[in-house]
């Protein structure tokens, strides 16, 4: 039996915009209200995904959310035609309106937590959509995310879909952005690392003071229970509160893992030595590589600015590893020098490949934010919705779809344009047919 790690990249939606909604995400806030390019953003994401497919990786796509979210605006008391709802919401409650126009679903690292069949009690792949309760604009996503995941992984013989955790801060769950899996081989049982920011029911425990800790220990444990994970294969690690206060809003901004490699900054974790010792003990006798980046090599500020750790580490067909990094890393002298040296340090990481994903970077997400990792056997892969996998033909179709439906530029004022809503719905309806997802959007079900 063969096994793979498949990256499902989020398609950037036709209303991609910069609203600066994410408090604690420095890049998001610093680019608020800038003019965006939905077409360029979508093409940058597709180009990155296609490049990985050309390297021999199995690559898929996940559909975006519908935005503006008219259904939520109606729940909040805005009435009349869709055009009237848009106009009245934009005039009466600008921040609520902008939240309902968020482009954040493009970062599918937040879509869900995924446990492969090798780790779970019932031998199936488990999915739990993230509830994303810490940010209103992201808390609108999990229901549609669940439908998209079910349309992508439909066969219940192989896949299990859980309802997202209760919509409450005590169970704040940010999905795979705070979850890493270490293993010897993708198809072998591994160690699942759940990184949390705070204890929801114990205020005496360490917590950040400036920016919010979005993931709770209680949420992480709930997901592990739902997925049927054995206690001996799970490690719960608290993120360093001080590093959250420096703008590290998710663990994947300060650490990333792949197979037997954990790549992290020295300031990433609270009680670091204890956590690393537990990982070693549970990982067993297989080789394990901890690549720790010192503050004297790369500052936390530079790590956040360039998203050094929001890179993808992938295992290539020849079993060597590569880092997929944004060009922002290449443009920073300290980070570029570190990566140049890393490939000569005798670790499994043998090369670095740079990609321009600046439309995503300006909104607060690097290459790793754009993908959801799903470890699958060859049999499980055959039962994935094949229309969501990125072949040469599907890549061309999706690029043609973007050219047909996406605007080249988008401003904040454009978001209230009812024609944009019509364009977006037309695009998404066509996309669900291209990907054979069924009716996943509210406008398709009305």
Name of the level-1 CATH class = Alpha Beta
Let me know the largest β-sheet. 3 strands, mixed
Number of helices: 18
Going by helix content, strand content and strand pairing, the class is alpha/beta
User: How are strands sequenced across the largest beta sheet?
Assistant: 2-1-15
Question: What is the CATH topology?
Answer: L-arginine/glycine Amidinotransferase, Chain A
User: How many strand elements?
Assistant: 15
Gap between N and C termini, in Å?
44 Å
What is the subunit arrangement here?
A: single chain
Q: Based on Cα principal axes, name the global outline.
A: globular
Helicity, as a percent range:
25-40%
Describe the structure.
This protein has about 450 residues and is of the alpha/beta class. The chain has one domain: 5-stranded Propeller (L-arginine/glycine Amidinotransferase, Chain A). Helix content is about 35%, strand content about 15%. The chain has helices at about 25-30, 40-55, 70-75, 80-90, 95-100, 135-140, 140-150, 215-225, 240-245, 270-285, 300-305, 325-330, 335-340, 360, 380, 390-405, 420-435, 440-445; strands at about 5-10, 60, 110-115, 125-130, 160, 180, 190-195, 235-240, 255-260, 260-265, 290-295, 310-315, 320-325, 350-355, 370-375. The strands form five sheets. Strands 2-1-15 form a three-stranded mixed β-sheet, with helices on both faces. Strands 3-4-5 form a three-stranded mixed β-sheet. A three-stranded mixed β-sheet has the order 6-7-8, with helices on both faces. Helix 2 packs antiparallel against helix 16 (about 390-405) and helix 16 (about 390-405) runs antiparallel to helix 17 (about 420-435). Residues about 20-30 have low confidence and may be disordered.
């Amino acid at each position: 039996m063969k096994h793979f790690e498949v990256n499902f990249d989020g398609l950037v939606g036709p209303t991609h915009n910069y609203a600066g909604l994410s408090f604690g995400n420095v890049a998001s806030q610093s680019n608020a209200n800038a003019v965006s390019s939905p077409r360029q953003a979508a093409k940058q994401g597709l180009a990155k995904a296609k490049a990985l497919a050309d390297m021999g990786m199995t690559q898929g796509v996940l559909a975006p959310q519908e935005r503006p979210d008219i259904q939520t605006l109606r729940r909040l008391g805005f009435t009349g035609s869709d055009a009237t709802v848009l106009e009245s919401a934009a005039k009466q409650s600008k921040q609520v309106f902008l939240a309902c126009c968020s482009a954040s679903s493009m970062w599918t690292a937040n879509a869900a937590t995924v446990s492969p069949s090798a780790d779970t009690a019932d031998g199936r792949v488990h999915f739990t959509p993230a509830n994303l309760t810490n940010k209103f604009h992201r808390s609108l996503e999990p229901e549609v995310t669940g439908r998209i995941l079910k349309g992508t992984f439909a066969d219940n013989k192989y896949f299990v879909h859980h309802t997202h955790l209760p919509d409450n801060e005590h169970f704040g769950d940010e999905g795979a952005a705070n979850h890493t899996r270490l293993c010897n081989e993708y198809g072998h049982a591994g160690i699942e690392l759940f990184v949390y920011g705070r204890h929801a029911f114990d205020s005496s425990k360490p917590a950040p003071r400036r920016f919010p800790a979005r993931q709770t220990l209680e949420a992480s444990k709930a997901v592990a229970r739902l997925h049927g994970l054995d206690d001996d294969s799970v490690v719960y690690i608290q993120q360093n509160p001080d590093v959250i206060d420096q703008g590290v809003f998710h663990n994947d901004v300060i650490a990333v893992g792949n197979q037997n490699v954990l790549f992290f900054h020295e300031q990433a974790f609270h009680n670091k030595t204890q956590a690393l010792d537990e990982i070693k003990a549970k990982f067993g006798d297989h080789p394990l590589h901890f690549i720790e980046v010192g503050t004297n090599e790369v500052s936390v500020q530079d790590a956040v600015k360039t998203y050094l750790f929001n890179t993808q580490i992938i295992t290539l067909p020849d079993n060597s590893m590569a880092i997929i990094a944004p060009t922002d890393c290449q443009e920073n002298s300290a980070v570029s020098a570190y990566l140049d040296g890393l490939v000569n340090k005798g670790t499994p990481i043998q090369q670095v490949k740079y990609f321009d994903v600046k439309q995503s970077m300006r909104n607060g997400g690097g290459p790793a934010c754009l993908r959801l990792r799903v470890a699958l056997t060859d049999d499980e892969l055959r039962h994935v919705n094949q229309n969501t996998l990125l072949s040469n033909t599907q890549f061309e179709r999706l690029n043609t779809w973007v050219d047909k439906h996406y605007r080249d530029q988008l401003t904040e004022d454009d978001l209230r344009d009812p024609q944009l809503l019509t364009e977006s719905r037309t695009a998404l309806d066509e996309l669900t047919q291209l990907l054979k997802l069924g009716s996943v959007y509210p406008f398709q079900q009305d």
